[in-house]
Every structure is written in C-alpha cells, then in structure tokens.
Amino acid sequence: MLKISNEHINTQEVEKKVYSLRLLQTPHSARILTYWITGIMVFGFFCLFLPWQQNVRGNGRVTAFAPQDRPQDVTAVIAGQIKEWRVQEGQFVAQNDTILILSEVKTDYFDPEQLKRLEEQVLAKGESIEATMRNIDAIDNRLMALKEGQTFGLEKSRAKIAQTRNKLSADSMDFQNAKMQYELEKTQFDNSKKQHEAGLISLNEFLKRQGTFQDKFAKFNSSENKYLASKQELYQSLADYNSTRADYMDKIAKAESEKSYYQSYLATSKGELSEKQNKYSNIQIRNNQYFILAPQAGYVVKALKAGIGETVKEGEAVVTIQPAQPKRAIELYVKAMDLPLISKGTKVRLEFDGFPALQFSGWPAVSIGTFGGEVIVIDYVNTKDNKYRILIAPDEKEKPWPTQLRIGTGTYGWFMLRDVPIWYEIWRQLNGFPPSLDEEPRVKDEKLPPNLREQKKDKK
To answer: Which of 63, 206, 309, 373 has its CA 20 to 30 Å from the CA of residue 418?
Structure first.
C-alpha cells in the first residue's frame, strides 16, 4: 500500500470478517511442517555424502578352530552290552577316565580262560618249532658227515682204480712179453720137431726143447690169467666207485628230502604260531576295550545310549564329549559372489545370539555389543547350498569375545570393505552391483604352490 491517506485499514479485522480471505491464508502448522521437511531434506542431502563402509554379510555359528577341540563322539571299538555307566551328562572327565564298561556278547569270547589257553597253545607251538629246528640241525650235521664220507669214499675208490690200472698195465706188459716168448718158443719147438723127425737132432735134444716149450707155455698161461684177473679187478673197482657214489647220493637225497619236510613243517608251524600270537594279542587288546575311556579332557554333552544291558554295535557312538578349553573360532557362510571380495586378514564385525547389539553395518564405530574378528581360513570347496565357509579368529586389537560363548552359538557377521559415500551405496544397492575394492585381495606368496608363485611373478 502507498499509505497516501491518513486512514488505515485493519487487515486482521477484515480477514476475520471476510471468509474467503481466511481460506487463502497459509496455516501456521503448515509452515512449520514445511520448515521441518525442508530441513530434513537438506540434512538428508548432506547425509548422502557421509562415508559408508561397504560390507558383506554372513551367518554362522561358534566352533573350535582345531579339529580336536570340536565336539566328538566316543565310539565303542567292539560290540558289547552296557554293564555299568561311570559318568553323567554335564560331568567333567579327564583324559582316560572310564565312561562306561561293556560286557561280551559274542560267543567266541565267552570263555574267561581263553587268553590263558591261547598262551599255552603259543608256548606249545613254540616248543614244537624249536624241536623241528633241532631236527633240521641234526639233518644238517648228518648231511655234512655224508658229504665228507662221500668225498673220502670216492677218493678211496679213485685211488684203488688208479692202483688197479697200474697193476693191469704191468700185468699187460708181462702178458705181452710171455706171449712173445711163447710164440718164439713154439716156433723153435716146431722146428725142433721137424728136425727130430728128419733125424737131424737127437731125441734128448728134442725133449729138452719140448720141456723149454712147455715151461714158456705155462708162463704164458699164468701171465694171461694174471692179466685177465687184473682186468676184472679194474672193472670191479669201477663198479665199487659207482656203487659208493650212488649209495652216498641216495643217502644224501633222503636226508635232504627229510630236511625239506621239516623245513616245510617249520614254515607251517611258524605261520600257525603267528596266527595264534595275533589272536592272543587281539584278545588281549579286546579285553581292554571293554572299558570305554575318554580320549581327552572335556564335558560329557550327551549320552547316545541309555540304561543298563543295551547292546552297542562295533563303531557305534555311545557319548558325545566337548573338550574343556577349545580355541574358539567363528565359521560364517557367505555367497559365492561375495567370496572374491574377502581375503585372509579381512576385518569382521560379529554379533552373537544372546548378546544384544545396536548395529550400524556401515559405521562399525557406533555399533554397540558387537565384537571384532579376523579372517584366518577360507575354504577351497563350497557347501551343498553353494556357499563358502570362512573361519574367523578373535581380533587381538578389539575387546575379547564373551566367555559365556558355547560351541554352536548362532553368529551374524559382516566383513568390512572400503569406505564409499552413502549415495554411492544406495545407487549400488538399487542397481544390484557388487561392492567395489581399491585393489585385488592379497595372497601371501609363501602359502602358494610353487607353480602359482611363478605365474604371479610372470604377471608382475
């Protein structure tokens, strides 16, 4: 208004009287709401530029890092019937404490003196083996004596053959000499006979020549008989040599055959002895298996068999034991698409069932009731639902995990990645993009196989 006139119009009074003007007026509450909405939008716009730490989520449970620290079933090595329980559920047992006692159910082991009888059989078989070995030693001595006798006998026969051959040679020479003299004397006798018939020599001279002829003939017959006797003696010496050789070979063959029999019996006896010793040891060990012992110190979690007189099969579990002081770890399962974003040493925030937590997955500094962890193992093989198991150990730089944690406690965790603005995270979630990394996750070279180390060096 130009305010030319001195009269003034009270606009408030006019607006009270004119209804249409009141409708055109903006309500005070609407203005306040507008201010609030504008302030919230401005605040939200600035919040879009706040840092947000990307993460990958996973679910799992509390477990033990070492396999020997995880809950284990104690099994019965032999079949039996429960005779007596020595523990209760929840009870602490030390290593080698008796959990329960079994009684025998197989008829082959009912005899209480079976071990003693087997021991007697083992001793008897051992004595039989010793006797057989003594027989073999005696046969060896006999074989040695026979071989020495054979050597001596054959040498003696060879000496006799050589002697007989020398004698035969001498007798042969005498026989040839006597034969020559006989033939010469016979010729002279025939000539003398013709001369006597012709009257050239006297009867006395002829008779003298005849006597000389008969003497040569007698010497010839004697040397021939001596030669034939020496020849026959040589044949007899050769026969004696062959007979002696054959006799000793027969005796040696019989002794070796007897030795082979005892050796075969010895081998069979040793096999039987080994079987009896094995059976004896098995029964001795089996007698100790009636007492089922705790493999390590821990707590009896659950009895899988109940009552007295219940039958237990071989290899069947009878009780579950949780080791006393396990080194706790967390096993989380993540999707295969998120696995490339995680490496050993990645930091993890954890929330345990029964421990309330106010979570800000992108702002771990303001999360209340969560605990820190670090990735130490990533499985190389996926599970049935196509997820990968990751083992997490406590982060020594964070507050310790609760002492009340039990094996199997449910766990929720998120793996901390790079920092991004909130608007980028919203845009990524709306488009379904995976989280981004500043660089490829590092893998320590010393834990790579040699061929992969060379490939990585070649890439560099």
So the answer is: 63
* Backbone dihedral angles phi then psi of residue 391, each to the nearest 5 degrees: -95, 135
Specify the pLDDT at position 18. Answer: 53
Provide the H-helix boundaries in 74-113. none
425: how many CB neighbours lie within 10 A of its CB? Answer: 19
Q: Is 306 exposed, middle or buried (0-12, 13-18, 19+ CB in 10 A)?
A: exposed
Instruction: Look at residue 135 and tell me if it is in a domain.
Output: yes
Question: Cβ(300)–Cβ(321) under 8 Å?
Answer: yes
Stretch (H or E) spanning 61: strand 51-64
Give the end-to-end CA distance of the chain in Å, rounded to a whole number. Answer: 81
Tens-place pLDDT, residues 354-400 = 776 555 555 455 455 688 899 999 998 888 788 999 999 998 888 88
The residue assigned the tokens 């990735």 is 375
Structure tokens at 384: 């049935």
Length of the chain: 460
Domain end marker among 273, 299, 322: 322
For residues 360 and 443, membership in a common domain is answered with yes
Q: Which amino acid is at 221?
A: N
Residue found by looking up tokens 């401005």 in the block: 42
- What is the tens place of the pLDDT at every residue in 404-440? 888 888 998 888 776 677 777 777 777 766 676 555 5
Residue 425 is part of a domain; what is its CATH number?
2.40.30.170
- Per DSSP, the residues of 152-191 read HHHHHHHHHHHHHHHHHHHHHHHHHHHHHHHHHHHHHHHH
| 259 lies in the same domain as 396 | no
Q: Which domain holds residue 84?
A: 72-104+290-322
DSSP state of 448: S
Q: Please identify, among 265, 287, 309, the residue that sits at the C-terminal boundary of a domain.
A: 287
3 in a structural domain: no
Instruction: Quote the DSSP letter at residue 257.
Output: H
Q: Rounded to an integer, what distance in angstroms lies between the CA atom of residue 281 and that of residue 50?
A: 75
> Residues 133, 263: one domain?
yes
Nearest to 52 by CA among 331, 460, 435: 435
Taking the model in full, what pTM does it have?
0.57
- Rg of the chain on CA atoms, in Å: 60
Q: Give whole-number Cα distances, 123 to 120, 201, 273, 280, in Å.
A: 5, 107, 9, 12
Give the C-alpha distances (Å, rounded to integers) separating 431 from 268, 427, 435.
82, 6, 11
